[in-house]
Amino acid sequence: MNTPQIQDIGQIAITVKDVAAAKKFYTEVLGLRALFDAGPNLSFVAAGSVRLMLSTPQGAGKPGMNSILYFRTNALDEFYRTVVERGARVEREPQLTAKLPDHELWIAFVRDPEDNLVGLMEERR
Fold first, then answer.
1. How far apart are CA 118 and CA 24, in angstroms?
2. CB neighbours (10 Å) of residue 16?
3. Is 74 exposed, middle or buried (0-12, 13-18, 19+ CB in 10 A)?
């Protein structure tokens, strides 16, 4: 008999004031894929195999006070420049964060329209 266990992260909720502005940022600025909308206060986008739910507070959470999402890329410097050109607010340019035995961790930060911090990361081998 198999013991039930966590398989992966299926969805992450991001609390926002303006769902349309958030959807535009996550799809047009970061380039994530729009999935579907469920009315004016709920939109879903895909970050690889993880679904992001963009939602007004609806009893939980506060806009701009979410956990930090870190989006992995294989070309941080170029991707960072691209999202800033598309309108992301600069928080911190790419920089070396940690030297690990087999790679370097590079991180940059931008802000979405609700002032949520968005991490961009690359593991350089």
1. 15
2. 28
3. exposed
DSSP string, 3-69: PP------EEEEE-S-HHHHHHIIIIIS-PEEEEE-STTEEEEEETTEEEEEE--TTS--TT-PPPE
Q: What is the full per-residue pLDDT of the chain (125 aa) written as tens digits?
A: 678 777 788 899 999 999 999 999 999 999 999 999 998 999 999 999 999 999 999 877 888 888 899 999 999 999 999 999 999 999 999 999 999 999 999 999 999 999 999 999 999 99
Burial class (CB in 10 A: 0-12, 13-18, 19+), 107: middle
| Domain annotation for the chain: domains and CATH numbers | 11-124 (3.10.180.10)
- Token digits of residue 93: 């340019």
Residue 60 CA to its chain's centroid (Å): 19
Asked if 22 contacts 54 with a C-beta cutoff of 8 angstroms, the reply is yes
